[in-house]
Structure formats: C-alpha cells, structure tokens
Amino acid sequence: MEWLANAAWSLLPTAVAGVFFWLIIRLILRADRTERRVYTEIEAQERAKAGLPPKKQAGSAPKNGSVSG
C-alpha cells in the first residue's frame, strides 16, 4: 500500500497547480464580465446625460425577424 501513498503524493502538486490555474482563470473572467457590465451602465448614463438615444445591444436581433444586408 505504500505505492498508493507515493502515487497520491506524486499527483498532488499537479492537482494543486490545476486548481490554482482554474481559480486564476475564473477570477479573470468574472472581473472581465463585471467590468463590461459596469462600463455598459456608465455608458448608458453618459448617453442619457448627453441626450443621445440608448445604444443597441450587440446580441439583439431585429424585432421583425428580417435580416438586413
């Protein structure tokens, strides 16, 4: 059974590095999502102050279902 403990200790650094990498990527993606949301809110406020119409969202489809182009 000593080989099982050796195998576990050999895999532990890789597992810890994987979890650390996953946490870093997760933090980066969540920060990016939050920053984009806040930027959109600020942009909407500034457009309203300037009297401009609201900006269309990038992912929105035309309401009548037609494709322009």
List the helices and strands and how they pair.
Layout (H helix, E strand, L loop, with lengths): L1 H49 L19
Overview of this protein structure:
The protein is mainly alpha-helical. It has a domain at 9-50. The chain is built from 1 helix and no strands. It has one helix spanning 2-50. The chain is elongated, with a radius of gyration of 24 Å. The relative contact order is 0.06.
By DSSP, the count of extended strands is 0
Query: How would you characterize the largest beta sheet?
Result: none
Beta-strand percentage range: under 5%
Alpha carbon gap, first and last residue: 69 Å
> What string, H for helix and E for strand, traces the elements in order?
H
Helix/strand/pairing category:
mainly alpha
Radius of gyration: 24 Å
Show unreliable segments.
Answer: none
Rounded average pLDDT? 88
| Broad shape | elongated
Number of helices: 1
What's this entry about, in short?
The chain is an all-alpha fold and 69 residues long.
